[in-house]
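Exercise 7b. Backbone tokens:
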């Protein structure tokens, strides 16, 4: 212990810890910090921030001040380190595995550095007090920014709707309304709060005066902040935290058990009230009670299946850290439909670690849990000898409660790549370890420090071209914003040369050049852009072969030049995400161009079977497709007939198929056949259409759209109200005029809905493209498919032309048809 005490002389070794603290504070408080981690130059900042603990650890070793963790924790660190190395060496995509493994070493080094710092600290509460102040600032920033950027604008919008006669309440079911500030996602914010709320409670118990008031205010504001995240995992963690607090009070407190019990019941009642006040929680609870879950539960289930299959394929090595985005669609089940088409993490820590590290990840989790249990046991033993103060005991149980609550939430989310969250876990572990007697300093050879320096040097050389590529790409995207195409291409081409394993650079080049081609009116320029774009998509697909994005967008470009290549591209895309909108349509177009009409009809029919609104698209009015449209509708009817003959159809699926077939009949104008299907399988919207088709007046109260139809003098007001009621948004003035003008062209509602309703033209954005690719410097791509949409169908008749994001039974029914078609197409090549 003499060596440790002598170290405390003032400023030795404090610069690096201060730098680490700076980076930790910065990435905790800066808005959207988790997304900024994958943008230049912020990526360089956090990389430097994680290198600092490694330098610190090397310095401690060189000074002979390396402090073991003791207990079983050193063995756990060795186990995890070995797992990181093995998974990185055998990963299918080794570069991202090395990137994330290197980052993990930074946290391990920080744990050793902070543990040493805590052991030599005179006041072992100081680190936690620092964390308390930071957490208080986090909560204030989170609430202030959410109120200013989300709550107030949304209340203003709802007030405008109310003035227009539309009553709409604040809806936490809308993702954009949940509090994601400052970490970038509401679940990150909730996870962070679960960790800090018990700390704030503990600090309020051990302090007096204004500090106690500060911590109490922070705790209350933290609960409010947690509510605004509307996180289900956060709610579950809060429930566990509440239970943990009651258990600790019953075991350790001298308060009467009766009062503790009453307090516990009050806390549970408050928690239930907290839950039922949130409409998102209410909807989920009622859905589960009714035996439904839909995409809310399906999303997690899909990712669980993907993670299980990924780990099962590589049980002894895992897929490698950071490999989930590259392998996701390879292991994605076809029955997932359009739910969770692409993610960068599997939304469950055990699932993520199993997928990326295999048995090493599971061993690490189990060992961590056992290590924490052993730590608690040791603490109780030491406490029995009265060697620990009451303040430290309170903090100990608060920290373990926070880790327990977060551990439960981690079952439904993966957040270890978030600096703020992993950082606070490291602080907690270092603090908990310091509450127990310290092991002696380990005598380490200076050779180890030199090995560490050599490793740091090698890794820095490896990182240099990666960061240089990132920097050049940032310059390229700046040039793109300024419409300087040649510099953009040059910068990103160089980025690809420096980091050829990154699919992001060639994908951005391929998409942007393809977009230029579609916008160009010069034939030669267009052809050159197309050729270059396809070439870059080829390079991107080599770097990341399991991405539907690269396959389908190459397909749309190839359709301009080589229909056979387009068929191959769309076929590969369909194998990755079978139910994605537009893929079977693109495949059908490529087959039509090759005069393979029968196969084209099969493909187009499969598009409609999965997405019935497809048949309402105005695109069928084009001269090139008019000739096949009638045949397509008849083919769809035949396919529904065959599907309805399948055995063991669920009641829900049977009802759905009848309703869809009735919809096709109605769209064809075959009202009697539509009525046969809709009679026992319809809904209020199908009944409305039947009455209107027979020129009958529907019963009161009339839907707002129908009131607009029957009341030309008040049509504008009714159209506005109908749109706002259906979409919860204000109607675009141009679209409003289009509705009014189109209704003047016919006195027949059926005719208007089928042929005269306004047309929406747009291209679907890949909103999560940058986040999933772990780069957000560039533009957000839009699919090359131009969508033409009947503007009246989606807002007012979506239940007639219904297409579920997640319907495993339907996709299991359609998948054999898809696979059979792909096999027939392959036999032609």
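Sequence design result:
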């Amino acid at each position: 212990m003499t060596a440790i005490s002598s170290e405390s002389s003032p400023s030795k070794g404090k610069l690096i810890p201060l730098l680490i603290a700076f980076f930790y504070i910065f990435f905790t408080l800066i808005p959207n910090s988790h997304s900024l981690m994958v943008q230049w130059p912020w990526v360089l900042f956090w990389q430097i921030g994680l290198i600092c603990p490694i330098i610190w650890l090397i310095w401690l070793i060189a000074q002979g001040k390396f402090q073991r963790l003791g207990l079983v924790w050193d063995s756990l660190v060795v186990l995890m380190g070995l797992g990181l190395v093995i998974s990185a060496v055998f990963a299918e995509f080794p570069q991202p595995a090395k990137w994330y493994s290197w980052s993990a070493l930074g946290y391990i080094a920080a744990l050793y550095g902070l543990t040493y710092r805590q052991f030599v600290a005179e006041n072992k509460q100081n680190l936690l007090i620092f964390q308390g102040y930071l957490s208080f600032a986090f909560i204030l920033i989170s609430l202030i920014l959410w109120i200013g950027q989300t709550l107030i604008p949304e209340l203003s919008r709802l007030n405008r709707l109310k003035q227009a006669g539309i009553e709409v309440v604040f809806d936490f079911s809308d993702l954009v309304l949940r509090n994601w500030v400052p970490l970038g996602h509401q679940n990150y914010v909730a996870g962070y709060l679960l960790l800090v709320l018990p700390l704030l409670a503990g600090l309020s118990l051990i302090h007096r005066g204004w500090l106690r008031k500060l911590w109490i205010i922070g705790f209350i504001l933290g609960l409010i902040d947690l509510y605004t995240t509307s996180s289900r995992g956060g709610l579950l963690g809060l429930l566990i935290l509440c239970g943990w607090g009651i258990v600790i009070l019953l075991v350790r407190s001298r308060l009467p058990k009766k009062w503790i019990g009453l307090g516990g019941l009050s806390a549970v009642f408050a928690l239930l009230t907290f839950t039922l006040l949130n409409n998102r929680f209410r909807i989920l609870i009622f859905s589960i009670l009714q035996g439904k879950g839909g995409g809310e539960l399906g999303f997690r289930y899909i990712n669980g299946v993907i993670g299980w299959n990924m780990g099962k394929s590589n049980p002894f090595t895992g897929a490698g850290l950071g490999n989930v985005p590259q392998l996701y669609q390879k292991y994605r089940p076809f029955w997932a439909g359009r739910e969770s088409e692409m993610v960068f993490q599997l939304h469950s820590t055990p699932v993520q670690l199993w997928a990326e590290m295999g048995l090493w990840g599971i061993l690490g989790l189990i060992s961590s849990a056992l290590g924490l249990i052993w730590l608690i046991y040791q603490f109780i033993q030491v406490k029995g000898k009265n060697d620990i103060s009451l303040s430290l005991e309170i903090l100990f149980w608060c920290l373990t409660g926070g880790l327990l609550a977060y551990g439960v939430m981690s079952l439904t989310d993966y957040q270890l790549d978030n600096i703020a969250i992993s950082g606070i876990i490291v602080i907690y572990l270092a603090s908990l370890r310091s509450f127990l007697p310290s092991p002696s300093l380990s005598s380490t050879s200076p050779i180890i420090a030199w090995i560490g320096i050599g490793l740091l040097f090698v890794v820095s050389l490896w990182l240099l071209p990666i960061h240089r590529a990132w920097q050049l790409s940032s310059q390229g995207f700046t040039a793109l914003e300024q419409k300087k195409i040649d510099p953009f291409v040059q910068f990103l081409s160089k980025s690809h040369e420096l980091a050829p394993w990154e699919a992001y650079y060639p994908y951005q080049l391929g998409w942007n050049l393809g977009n230029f081609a579609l916008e160009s009116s010069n034939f030669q320029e267009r052809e050159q852009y197309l050729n270059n774009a396809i070439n870059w998509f080829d390079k991107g697909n080599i770097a990341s072969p399991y991405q539907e994005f690269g396959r389908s967008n190459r397909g749309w470009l190839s359709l301009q030049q080589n229909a056979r290549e387009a068929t191959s591209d769309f076929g590969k895309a369909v194998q990755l995400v079978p139910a994605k909108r537009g893929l079977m349509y693109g495949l059908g177009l490529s087959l039509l161009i090759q005069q393979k009409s029968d196969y084209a009809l099969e493909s187009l029919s499969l598009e409609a079977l999965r997405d019935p609104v497809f048949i309402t698209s105005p695109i069928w009015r084009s001269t090139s497709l008019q000739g096949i449209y009638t045949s397509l509708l008849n083919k769809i009817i035949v396919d529904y007939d065959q599907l309805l003959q399948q055995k063991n159809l669920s009641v829900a699926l049977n009802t759905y198929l009848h309703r869809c077939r009735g919809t096709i009949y109605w769209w064809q104008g075959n009202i009697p056949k539509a009525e046969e299907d809709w009679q026992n399988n319809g809904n209020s919207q199908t009944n409305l259409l039947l009455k209107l088709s027979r020129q009958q007046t529907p019963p009161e109260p009339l839907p707002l759209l129908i009131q607009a139809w029957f009341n030309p003098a008040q049509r504008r007001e009714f159209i506005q109200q109908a749109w706002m009621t259906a979409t919860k948004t204000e109607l675009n003035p141009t679209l409003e005029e289009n509705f009014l003008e189109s209704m003047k062209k016919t006195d027949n509602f059926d005719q208007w809905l089928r042929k005269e309703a306004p047309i929406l033209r747009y291209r679907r954005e890949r909103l999560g493209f940058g986040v999933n690719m772990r780069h957000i410097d560039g533009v957000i791509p839009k699919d090359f498919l131009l969508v033409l949409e009947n503007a009246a169908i989606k807002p007012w008749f979506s239940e007639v032309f219904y297409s579920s994001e997640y319907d495993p039974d339907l996709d299991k029914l359609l998948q054999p048809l898809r696979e059979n078609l792909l096999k027939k197409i392959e036999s032609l090549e």
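Instructor comment: The longest strand covers residues 759-762. The chain has 37 helices and two strands.
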